[in-house]
Amino acid sequence: MTGLFIGSTGGSAGKSLLSVALGVLLQKRGFSVGFMKPVGQYPRQEAERLGDADALIIQEALGQHVQADDLTPAMLPSSLHALSILADDSAFSRIKEAYARISEGKNVTLVCGTGRFPSAGTCFNADGLRLTRELGLKTILIERFRGAVEYDALLALRQHLGDSLLGVVLNDVPEKNHRDIDNLLRPYLESCRVPVLGVIPPEPGLTAMRISELARMLSGVIVAGNAKTANFVEGYIIGTMQVDNFMTFLRTRKKSDAVIVGGDRADLQIAALHSGCCCLVLTGNISPCELVRALAEEKGAPLISVRPDTFTVARSMEGIIRNKKMRDLKQLRLAIDLVTGSLDLGRIVDTVKN
């Protein structure tokens, strides 16, 4: 049996999506696949047992039926009041025992990491390096391309992992960067014995939602720009600063980010609309002035008016976007299709066979 660890040197790199897509692809090749996420981050109750929300979704997609606390034996504390759980010295033993049960009779078991590899899980003495070494796992790293690649971190991990590092998958790489990736970065990494297993292009449909759907999930009302509510939102930023600083910040963000701003901050609202943002979420149940309404119609950027304050809405947005990634079956199918066309599955299959 082969164990594959899916990790990344940064958060929100695409570990869950690669795990579910790779699991389905291996199943299609005839392999029996197990799955677990040793250290969880997003607790969810399932049949009176606590597990990780994302891990439970992946398990369902792969047709696996494992109790939630076996699927995720250790859960990071969700608040300072829960720090006492870190005194639990049995977490690593539970992880090893759960891995043995889940992997029994399987050709391959996928182990999905949490947060940053290898540091995540250190609080339970279950950091990534210990997990991979003591469970005998091969490692695949997935890195989200944010204008650059953390090649220093990749090379350091290559030294720590040795030949157990299968390679790296580069995620969210714009087409304009593919030539440099193929001609410069890929040869360099492979000369350093870090094989590039795939280059995945951006796909807004994986993390995006329509503006009309966002308004519904925030219990908001669209008060302007109704013609563009079918456009997509991928992320968000918060407008709580001076206009000059805010404009500088906006230039570094994607046009598909929603801007959350107080309903009484017409100056920031106008600045955001001129920047080309996809929509505004106006907090505090304050109606926008006519100038802002007119500008929103002109720019094609819907205005969503919501009752809660900016901080509360930002927290809601974080949960909505995270949950949207893993709870939409259409997005799971899209992820599988995207990975199928981008991944060197043959190299991974050869590892599983051997």
Gap between N and C termini? 9 Å
Global structural class: alpha/beta
Largest sheet: 6 strands, parallel
Kindly identify the CATH topology of the largest domain.
Answer: Rossmann fold
| CATH class membership of the largest domain | Alpha Beta
Summed up, the domain count is 2
Task: Tell me the strand order in the biggest sheet.
Answer: 2-7-1-8-9-10
The helical percent reads 40-55%
Separate helix tally: 15
Report the principal-axis shape.
globular
Please indicate the percent range of residues in DSSP E strands (runs of 2 or more).
15-25%
- What's the count of strands? 17
Question: CATH homologous superfamily of the largest domain - what is it?
Answer: P-loop containing nucleotide triphosphate hydrolases
Q: What number is the mean pLDDT?
A: 88
CATH architecture call of the largest domain: 3-Layer(aba) Sandwich
Q: Nearest-angstrom radius of gyration?
A: 22 Å
Residue runs with pLDDT of under 50 for 5 or more positions:
none
Description:
The chain is of the alpha/beta class. It folds into two domains: 2-202, Rossmann fold (3-Layer(aba) Sandwich), CATH 3.40.50; 206-321, HprK N-terminal domain-like (Udp-n-acetylmuramoylalanyl-d-glutamate--2,6- Diaminopimelate Ligase, Chain: A, domain 1, 3-Layer(aba) Sandwich). It has 15 helices and 17 strands. It has helices at 15-28, 53-61, 68-71, 91-103, 128-135, 151-161, 178-191, 204-207, 211-217, 243-250, 266-275, 290-299, 310-327, 329-340, 345-353, and strands spanning 2-7, 33-36, 39-40, 43-46, 49-52, 74-75, 108-112, 137-144, 165-171, 196-199, 209-210, 221-224, 232-233, 235-239, 257-262, 279-283, 303-305. The strands form five sheets. The protein has a six-stranded parallel β-sheet, with helices on both faces. Strands 12-17-16-15-14 form a five-stranded mixed β-sheet, with helices on both faces. Helix 11 packs parallel to helix 12. The longest helix is centred in the last third of the chain and has 18 residues, at 310-327. The chain is globular. The termini are close together. The model has no long low-confidence stretch (mean pLDDT 88).
